[in-house]
User: What shape does this take?
Amino acid sequence: MTSETDIAIDVRNAVKRYGDFTALHKISLSIRDNEFFTLLGPSGCGKTTLLRMIAGFEDVTEGEIFLFGQEIERLPPHKRPVNTVFQNYALFPHMTVLDNVGFGLEMLGKSKPEARRRAGEVLEMVRLEQFAARKPAQLSGGQQQRVALARALAPQPKVLLLDEPLSALDLKLRKAMQVELKHLQRETGITFIFVTHDQEEALTMSDRIAVMSAGELQQLGEAREIYERPRNVFVADFIGDTNLLEVTVDKVADGRAQCHLGGGHKLTCDEVEGIGVGSAVHLSLRPERLYLSADPVEEESLKGRVRETIFIGTDIATIVDLADGPQFTIRSSNSTRGNARVFDPGSDVYVNMELGAARLLVD
Assistant: This one.
């Protein structure tokens, strides 16, 4: 159980309005000390607004924000033990890397020798000590990003806020920086609050994720929980790929719900509270939790025909039209060790699902 002393940031019923427009609707969440916490959602969902409220760059219209038990929504940004890494690195082009990192420390009253010593420590932490004498223009994008991180970490803030800091990097470098950021968070023990619209990035890095949409918190939980047990249609559709089907519940018994999805096809899944017999709802089936066979292998194998097979490198995606029913996407690993069989377009097949793969959703 988490105690109050374990909570780094506590947001209570936070509202943000710009005139008649409400950007955030009564957001409440607690972020633990030494946690890599991600605010995830599409553009305009309010995640950056919430981050800026924590930093002090935006006022709180209603509600409260606490940092380690201290109410901070009335504190100016420079009095909060919080630092921010922005999308644009905002490095001083005329200063060396070492001076860029040490500048903020000097502004906080540290002596020049002390600032340079600490700057050297954090540059070593981000593996850039050999570039200390260079100017930012002499560095790659990934190296500039690490300088910005070092500068933000140098004053040893209690919380580090990161506003889509990897968005300007190419895919390969972005993935490398994801690993590096997670390593830095563990090494420093600082609470990281990370903003992104990239679902894979959030799943890769986060201890917990808050999924947001239209200024509202949709779901909060660990990465696996949100992916495997999405609370509603938005979360299921936004996090990863899914087969999102309209179904009607025919029967509920012993914790299981039987649904039909058109064309006489039926599927059984775990019961979800609030969904009863006759409910017209949605069902989520992750493509990697399905597999194909030439013959039925279980009572609820779904008969269909292959429309298309798509090679995507690590995986193979197969599009199947059910007989008089919906379309499915099945995704299997491109590996000779697996039992996945590739079927040509036009092949008659059966779609089967792993136990627990189907998830009923409250709309």
